[in-house]
Design a protein that fits this description.
The chain is of the alpha/beta class. It contains 10 helices and 13 strands. The protein folds into 2 domains: 110 residues, Aspartate Aminotransferase, domain 1 (Alpha-Beta Complex), CATH 3.90.1150.10; 223 residues, Type I PLP-dependent aspartate aminotransferase-like (Major domain) (Aspartate Aminotransferase, domain 2). The structure holds pyridoxal-5'-phosphate.
Length: 363
Amino acid sequence: MPERDEMSQFWSDHVHALEPYVPGEQPKEDVLIKLNTNEHAYGPSPRALSAIQQAATDDLRLYPTPGSDVLVQAIATTQRVDPTQVFVGNSSDEVLAHIFNGLLRRANQPLWLPDITYSFYKTYCRFNAIAPHYVALNARFEIQPSDYMEAQKSGAAGIIFANPNAPTGHYLDLDAIAEILQANAGIPVIVDEAYIDFGGISAAKLLAEHANLVVTRTFSKGYALAGLRVGYALGNTEIITGLQRVKDSFNSYPLDRLAQVGAAAAMADTAYYEKVNQQVIENRAYLHQGLEQLGYDVLPSKANFVFARPLQQGAKEVFLALRAQGILVRYFDQPRINQYLRITVGTRAQCEALLEAIKKATI
Ligand SMILES: *Cc1c(COP(=O)(O)O)cnc(C)c1O
């Protein structure tokens, strides 16, 4: 970080202390295979694309509906909740930003979260002056519900984790999540389900019984629409009303017209997504097995990526060797996980090419 006196005198005070999130690289040069940011191996629903094309009309001179009503109704129907329990935003990152601001920002109350999880949570903590309280994953990188039983009692503002977790891929079943909710019934518990469409069961089922639950979802991963930027949260009506107050103090029209119709059309095309997500699940099993055969320790994953540790070589060395062959994966140079690679599950051909490239890198 540059010295303070090199920083702009024009910034607001708090900007000096921010630690911005660093997303996986979106390369400009030629990369043969991009497996570093968990985008979907297959494209979005053709119906979603045609809905977007049909909405590209003169009507774009008009503002969209501020509440994204058609999309909210589509989500409510699919998730079997009331529309007043749905909050949509321009990506789940934005939804999470509003959740941190509107639900988790409390004086002198820390937010409980795993030590290894989606690193944007730490950035949002900084942005909102929330103190993070890190709870260590166990040796197999699993969240243990028993570690969260005392959160509320000890004064936590709330709890957040991803399920399946990132970048580990570990999935917690609904009984375990219910235990955490039950023990912390007076504080919000946020379950980030960015990767739930690859074989997990959504905690949305628990909403009726747990008023403190907030589930966040995105169209970026399971719906192959990372470029459209649509995410949402499900929660009880009071919680959602609070988020709307924050949103309407920030941006009244977070979702443009194309995003609203595209996401709604995608949601309606369940047959398409069942097919392509099943394909990703099969490719994941293939990749998992292939990596094990090459001597990798591979954690079980319910996401569209695997988290794997080369046993013969350093992870960074493999990362660089793959990059030299035009294949991008994700490497995190941080304690506990700097011997692992996070590899997005690509098409079958991409998985094969990756395994071949690893073989070459190993010789
Ligand atoms: C990708 C991801 C998100 C962000 O999704 P967007 O809707 O694209 O902002 C949120 N949480 C986790 C755990 C993710 O991996």
